[in-house]
Design goal:
Residues 268-286 have low confidence and may be disordered. The protein has a six-stranded antiparallel β-sheet with strand order 1-5-6-4-3-2. Strands 7-10-14-13 form a four-stranded antiparallel β-sheet, with no helix packed on it. Strands 8-16 form a two-stranded parallel ribbon. By secondary structure, it is α+β, with helices and mostly antiparallel strands. The chain has two domains: 3-170, Phosphatidylinositol Phosphate Kinase II Beta, CATH 3.30.800; 187-374, Phosphatidylinositol Phosphate Kinase Iibeta, Chain: A, domain 2. It is 32% helix and 19% strand. The radius of gyration is 21 Å and the shape is globular. The protein contains eleven helices and 16 strands.
Length: 376
Amino acid sequence: MTRRETLIARSIVYAILTAREDGRPARKPSLLKRALRLFYTYWLVFRLVREDLFRALRGVWMIDEDGYKASFNPRKQSGKKNKGPLIPMGDMGYSGSTFFRTDDGAYLVKSIPRHFEHDFFKSDMLIPYADHMRANRSSLLVRITNFLESAHKSIGTLLGLAPSHHIVMENIMYGQDQGSQDGPKPKWESWDLKPSSYFFPERDIAGGALASQSTKSKLADEFHDKIRLTQAQATEFQRQLENDTLLLANCNAVDYSLFLVRISPIDARTTTGSEPLIQLGETSTEPIPPAEPPFAPPNPPSWRTGIVSSDGKEVYRAAILDFFWAKHTVHAKAMTALVQGYNLIDDRGPMSITTDSKEYRSRFLNMCKELVEVQE
C-alpha cells in the first residue's frame, strides 16, 4: 500500500470508529490545527453524513454495530493475520473512483471524486434511497452503510489528489476468498452490465481505434450466457428490478449498472430453496454465503446472498450499482449538448449519461430481461 493509500485509509477508518453520534469528528481541533489542516495532502478528517439515517438503515438490515465496526478494525478480527485497516483495490471504474475493501472482505469503500455525483447523492438521492430501502428489504440496490465527506478543505482535496467523499457499501463478492479446505474451490465470475445499444465514443468513434485498450477495458462488460431461473424466480427478479429502477427514474438517475456474480460449480443435491445455506460441494464445509454477518442469508436466499440456478449448478448474486449520475446536473447537461452537437455530424444517438432517465430505465430493464432464460 502506498503512503497516499495508507493515509486515506486511516482517515476513513478513524472516522467510522470514533465519530460522535451526529457523525462529526470525535475531537474538536484547536484553531491552530484547523489552520494547518489546509496544508494536508492525504491525511483528512472525515465526518459521517447523516449517521443517524445510516445507523437506522443498518438496523433495518440487522447489521450488528459492534460487528460492523470490527470489520474496519483489524485488531478486533481474531485468528487472522491482518494486512491493514483497509486493502486498496485500485481504480476499478471509468469515473476514476478508487476502491478499498475491509480486511474481512465484507465491505467496500468507494471514492466519489466528482462533485456533481456526490452532491446529487447527498442532496437529491439520499432520503428517497433510505425510504426505499426501508420499505423494500429485497431491493437489488446496493446497500450503502455510510457516507463520508471531508470535514475541511485541504490542498489534497482542492487539487484532486485526495477524494473528499466516500461511500461504504456491502461487497457482494464477499466469500470469494473463502473456499473448501477439502473439495475444489468454486469459480467466481463477475460482470458490470449496462445497455450496450448506447453510443460510447471510446467504442464507436473510428471503431475504437482512437481509444487505448486500457480505456476501453473500463467500459461495460458483456455477458455471453444466460441466467437460468425458474419462472417464479424470473418473475420476482423482474418485479424487483422494475421497483428499484422506478425509484431511480423518479430521481432522474441514469447510467447505473447491474453487477452480476456467478459462482460455479455447486452440488445440486445440497441447494434446495428451503436450505438457509448454499453448500459448495459434497466434501465442503464452507457455505455460500459465509454463515457470519453481514451475509448470513434469510430463508429463502436473496440476490444478495445467492440464488440457485434452475438446474442447480450455479449460484447468482446481483446488485444495482453506480446510481450517482443525474440527468439534471450541470455536468450532464453540458455532456448532452456536446453529444447533440456531435450527432449533427454523425448521428449515433444518446450516450447512457445523456439519455432520458425513463428511456434509460426501459433499455436497462430490457437488457436484464434478455439475460434470463426460464427453465423449470
